[in-house]
Amino acid sequence: MNKPWQETMLADAPSGGRISDPQIVAMIRRAVLTQRLPPGTRLPEVTLGEIFGVSRSVVRKALTRLASDHVIVQQPNQVARVSAPDVAETREIFAARRLVEGEVAGLLAGRLEEAQRQALAEIIAREHEAHQRGDEAERVECSQAVHHYLAEQSPNRVLGAMLADLILRTSIVIALYKRSGMEACYLDHDHADLLTLLEHGPADEARRRMHDHLSALEALLDLRPQESRIDLAAILGGAA
To answer: Smallest Cα–Cα separation from 232: which of 64, 95, 46, 98?
Structure first.
């Protein structure tokens, strides 16, 4: 991480006025989604209150929502932590995402309007450029944006909502199980190839290609049980 998590959160915060619990939820979700806030990170209520300048009751509301969205884990009398799924759950998450996003890809194949095609092409181009210059944070954000755009454009809104949730949960396990020393979970040309199939079809091929893409991403991970040793105190430079 290039800068303390506190700076990252505050940079995302709206200027002026008190920060609300939905805003805290959105900021923490974004930090987890872009892998700037790693799995297993401790989230003490007092520290979060100091970071955002709010009461512990506001922090509790935010943490409750984050727990319901599977972003964090809360246990009685324990400090909340960013979710860190085990290997079995990780495999289940990828299996579910293959089913859901494969179907979304099939529904969209051959139906993309020009504006949708251009929007996806621009995101994919930015992702490639970020990878070329070694900007991993930007690359991750663009990669997630590709899949989130598919979720938003899904003809089936229920599947789209399910996919948005699975993208977040997948991001968490990628951050947790990415192989040591691996620069990025980046599959060159995969998104560009997917775009071609989404633009022209056929649906079955787009669905299969999405399955292969997600399986290849899962294969890049080191799915052995491990513990995250990253703590919020380290991220905040000893402030926790």
So the answer is: 46
DSSP character for 149? Answer: H
Please tell me the pTM assigned to this model.
0.75
Residue 76: DSSP 8-state: T
- Bridge partners, 80 (sequence order): 43
Tokens representing 226 are 């491990």
Question: Beta-carbon neighbour count of residue 240 at 10 Å?
Answer: 21
Q: Coil, helix or strand for 181?
A: coil
Judge whether 120 and 149 are in contact, CB under 8 Å: yes
Tokens of 52: 């955002």
- pLDDT given for residue 118 in this prediction: 96
**What are the pLDDT digits (tens) for 56-108?**
999 999 999 999 888 899 988 889 999 889 999 999 999 999 999 999 999 99
Rounded distance between C-alpha atoms, residue 85 and residue 20, angstroms: 28
* Helical (H) or strand (E) element with 73: strand 72-73
Using CA atoms, how far apart are residues 43 and 137, in angstroms rounded to an integer?
22
What 8-state DSSP symbol labels residue 53? T
